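anyone else get weird line breaks when pasting these?? whatever heres mine. first is seq + tokens for prot A
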Amino acid sequence: MTQATAQPRRHQATLALDARATLGECIRWDERQRLIYWVDIPGRQLHRYDPATGRDDAMPLAQEMGCFALAERGGFICGMRSGYARLDRFGGEFTSLASPDYDPARARFNDGRCDSAGRFWAGTMWEPRDRAGGIVYRLDADGRFGAQCNPVIIANGITFAPDGRSMTLADTTNHVLWAFDYDLVTGIPSSRRELRSYEPASGRPDGACVDAEGNVYVAIMAGGRVEKISPTGELLALIELPIPNITCCTFAGDDLRTLYITTARTRMTDAELAAHPYAGGLFVWRLPDGDAPGIIEPRYAG
């Protein structure tokens, strides 16, 4: 892992929406509708936020949605507690799909996104947190799926470089963000290496996204920040928030230069919530001139 050779730049994010989500996650920009989608996992809601108006609509869910990706033919491919499902539209109907054989009483889907070939990668979290019982799966466009990568406790931080040649995966509970070589033709990762690790007191890597240069923006749970990390592991910048639990981020806007960030209230005491009243809110930060913009999120090809 390459260590930082200079002090990272520091920035401040501001509140966009006082959402008070229990656990905001999996935030994605829909460039076709110019809307942002995100989930409150334990709150069992899929949100649709309009940056132009500030309006946020919530769709109730019958079970936890851990992650989703937009689909080329419309709607969403989703990782639910019970497994894969297709949602035809916001506010619409779910169709259950063939799913991995795991015990939904002890595990659920947590983090996921598509590679540029349109495969949906999604990992589970092992809720007892006593062993690496979470698995990362790849769902192909034809509906076939299989276990990939290595077992984790909580799968997070799945990203793909713009050129499709590398991939990241965080195991949140073990405080590590890994990088892999990635074969876009076969959809197989290899050569796992540590991109960045964290001392327990400094926070844990959670959801992430990448910019057009392949830098990884990773949310730090219990760390109050988003880190911008180079493809070689150098810490380039810190986007700081006035609350501790930072969960995921995405680039949005027509120029992909606005970073939206989800946060959480989960596991905070009454005193902590009183000290951080905007915990669970949606935050925003505008990239400085000269920084690379984000990328359009690939859609599920199935």
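and prot B, same format (seq, then tokens)
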Amino acid sequence: MLNLLAAGGTGRISRRQLLGLGSQGALGLALQPLLLAEAAQAAAPARSSAKARQCIYIFLCGGPSQLDLWDPKPDALDTIRGPFKSIDTSVPGIRFTELIPRVASHADKLAVIRSMHHGSADHNFGIAHTLLGQLPASANDLFVTRRDHPALGAILHKLRGDCGVLPPWVTLPRPFTTLSPPHKGQSAGFLGASYDSVTLNEPKIDSLAPKELRLEALDRPADVSADRFDARRRLLTQSNVSPGAGSDAQARWEGEVSRAMEMLSGPACRRAFDLSSEPDSVRDRYGRNEYGQSFLLARRLVEAGVRMVNVFWTYFDKKGCQFNLWDNHGVTTDICGVGGILTGEQMLTHDYCTPSFDRAFSALLEDLEARGLLDETLVAVAGEFGRTPKINTMAGRDHWPFCYSQLLAGGGVRGGQVYGTSDKTAAYVKENPVTPDDFAATILHAFGVDPGAMIEDRFSRPFRLSEGTPLASLFG
């Protein structure tokens, strides 16, 4: 629908195009999830004392090191402790490393889960497991299909309904892939495309360059004037074309047309996605790169009413070569033009990694609190696994899923706490083990959603929302 309304050319819409408007394929790809969304059919559980109304889910692609960030072991051997000093945070007794001093000053807002674990050291499997919030069906089925269990953003859309003219779920700066289709946990799966996220699809080039992130689907081509756009809107209104017979179907169709018109011509959606309206000082504070501007845009979106924003942190060079910067094994050749041979230590301290994260994440926490948004905005920071306790010959660390750390803040989570403990080398969980399933269940719990509730596929087959157990003690 949006493609036909905004498209250039003769301005004529054929009868075949009009009849095709009832099908999903005629919709603009970026906005079709919103425009096809049905009214929520599943009764959402009572919110009770749940505080989260929106969530920013940050994924550090590649597997960040627990020992070099959130769970330092200053008394371990040099070959385990690593080169980075541990530092005090804003909470007595909680220590981070010198790589994230700004984030350390916000430890009073954070719940640090130091007992994450699962059983696979494979990137693709770990990513799918974490984003999906449950084990994939098999090691050969790790990328999105319509058979998948729906991701968290889709579940919340289904249970909580639409967000006015704004999309309920947005992905920034693009869906996450590694020379592959998107990994599981990034689609609505069996709920259908109506519940998929709206994606920016930012070009895969030069992540450290100044960015102006935009949702291009909101733009009319230069040769489509406001008058021509209005004429197409009137034609649609007069056509009485709908996807099915009956008053309910017609009402849904008219609602979809109305939302499409408002998104394309109204100010609310454009304003939410417009980073240029932010003061230069704020944009500079977050960092004038893809990472910082994605975090800033995520704040703007939840402030405007978007329920779920996924932010994926990976690196692309000026030629579009991808580099998993958090995967700090160390590199022996010049990958993506990042400087030839790099040790794992150099990877972590490069501008594309911890310096940019420390700046952007601390700015996000400050901004959410200053605007009174943190109490109702759950912020999650995750990766697919952690890193080996033992440092390798490239001064880096290898894949390690048996013990690692993740973060939660806001949304009713009590800050200034550590959940679970690792052993003396952060190799294995010592107390209170947590799985990716539990982490996903905790996000649902923050919204007042029972992870054990059922959701149906299009064949009316029931599936549990989550197999995990929420960490209820983090709240309150």
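btw re prot B: The radius of gyration is 23 Å. The chain is about 30% helix and 15% strand.
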